[in-house]
TrEMBL record:
InterPro entries: LipoPS_assembly_LptD (IPR020889), LptD (IPR050218), LptD_C (IPR007543). The keyword tRNA-binding does not apply. It comes from Sterolibacterium denitrificans. GO terms for biological process: Gram-negative-bacterium-type cell outer membrane assembly; lipopolysaccharide transport. This is LPS-assembly protein LptD. Together with LptE, is involved in the assembly of lipopolysaccharide (LPS) at the surface of the outer membrane. Belongs to the LptD family. The gene is lptD. Its main location: membrane.
Amino acid sequence: MRFLRRGQAFRRLLLPLLVVTALGLHESARAAGSGVVRDRSLQISYEFGTPPVEGKDAPLPSFIEADRITGLNDVETVAEGNVSVRRADNVLTTDRLVYRQNDDEVEAIGNVELRQNEDVISGPHLRLKMADNIGFFEAPRYTIKRAPAGGASGPLTVGSGAAQRIDFEGKNHYRLSSATYSTCAPSDPAWFARASSIQLDYDTEVGDADDATLVFQDVPLLYSPWLTFSLNNKRKSGVLAPTIGTTSKSGFELSVPYYWNIASNMDATFTPRLMTKRGLALGSEFRYLDENYSGTLQADVLPDDRVAHRQRSSYSYNHSQNFGRGFTGSLDLNGVSDDTYFSDLSSRMTNIARNNLLRQGVFGYASTWWNASLMAQSYQTLQDPALPPMAIPYRRLPQLTLNANRADLPFDGHFGFRGEFVRFVHPNQIEGTRTILNPQFELPIQTAAFSLTPKLALHSTTYDLAGWNGKPGERLTRNVPLFSLDGSVVFERPLELAERSLTQTLEPRLYYLRVPTREQSRIPVFDSGLTDFNFAQIFSENRYSGDDRIGDANQLTAAVTSRLIDPETGAELLRGAIGQRFYFKDQLVTLPGETVRTTRTADFLAALSGEIAPRLTLDAGLQFNPHDDQVHRLSISGRYQPEPGKVLSAGYRYNRNQLTSLTSGDVRQIDIAGQWPLSINWSVVGRYNYSLEDHRVIESVGGLEYNADCWSSRVVLQRIATATGDSSTAFFIQLELNGFASVGSNPLDLLKRSIPGYGRSAQAAGAMP
């Protein structure tokens, strides 16, 4: 056996010496080159424990244990009975071993087990060139484990199964004949791929199989004449597992994606989608990523919709670019062929509710204290014929903005500037341009417990309006000064609550705002609206969004916040706040159709959020009108989540006199959702969102999950109410084979969106190899 190479003479002397030293041979052989080992105990040899290195190809020493060793020096060594061979991290055990030194080849017969690092292969017969890892194994059972290639972080790649024969084709390369492959435990795999030939390449982490059948619980599921799969859940070209599902509007659906791994930073997916009611569609997605740019292009086409009797299509393109030296750019383009595309062909509620599809391009520059951008923006507005007409947003062709901020002025002063030039275009409304100059100056005074920030600003706006409806064009100018004073104090004290040391804060805040009245009724409304009334808005400078209305103000906002803080970690456990705005003058500036405020106080706001008990969180908000003693808005939701895979949530939402695409009048909804295990493997998932005002289900989701050691399954049913009064139903069924493939329609995005806190259970998360 070639243990070390130091020259022919030294090798002849070393072989018997190493065998004697390593095996503890106490009785010399009677014939040259042969002998009997009477003591099988393996002795430590410090002299030969580390081989001399003559180059990177120098072989490592081997150590043999056996009941009997015979052979001819430098030619062949035969070991019999409880044979064990160790070389570095490789261990071979067998009943009989023949080692041919000239070829560095071992042949093992009977109860053969080969351990290479964490790999274990066993069978009746092995021939292997140990240094080159070339040979074969007859009728083996195998378990092969590998860390990700290239030193990358990630879980081990685990594959196991049986074969008629394994051919070793070099380090990390295996060819299996009449074999099975699975990521399950090798003793009793729940699923496996059976193929006439399987090639495993752990350098590229890719597996290829010919004449392959996917078997689950002894039931054949899929057949493919050629199958390719990732050995570490990494990208590779090939046909992906099919997606199967059903919806009420499209019927039974079958999708068979093909994934093309174009390059390390570029890929594409082509997905034929068969819908029994509507026909055959083709979806595609192209992605690219570089150090300075990235993007995604999606396109879907249904050449002949058998229900709508027309061609239907959609596209979406997103691109972002860093040109260097502070210059950036982006594109966001979206479009569909018709107004009911999403409501007919999509099962996602976020798509069904989409009314305006953005089309926008931006080119910008950013410096250390200022930035500028040039944007063109328009929308495709979807007008469902079964619904009231949608308002078409103005297009911005173009919009130029300039922003500057300097916080390094004397006395800690802060200067800011916002400038804008935008041209508004509309097919059937007045058009024009708007120019804004908005300088502002702050002088904050701040200590550890106290802050006071006075602010002065000027909002100067010029409109150049085109002629419309027989009226000539005109130029309008508006200059509105602004003054605000924002002050707050922070008090804190230690607090013992439920035998826990905490810190409680009390943070009163006063915000005074003075904005004089300016006539604005002649200014068209390009992009303004009344903002939502909440804690953020009562401390803002303008009650309107956009810039076409600057609300007049002489008002004071008073609020107080209290927090419970863990003094050791600084984590906020619970927060409560109350606040109200007080007016010193009547409202004069309005939007068209807006009801004028005549009271001296605004609605009362209250909020509470945080952890009210271990693993139990609460989020509540209240808007109360003290003049009519009515609640205008109330939302309360709670979540109990003791561990991953266990979560229950419930909520109630009330909005008075709110109009939405799905409701009219008041909004009163309950929302219950959860994920909870029924046993060690089974979990139930669901959501129930019901409108008490309209007596209808907004969305309902229900399903079951099964998580095993190497596979999981989900069955989910979803029902969504549409804006036209009908509903869309979708059925998802998925079989996920850990580390190999996923078969069926994937409901994970739906469950994550519908169930707050949804996630894989601890048992399922730990099952991944």
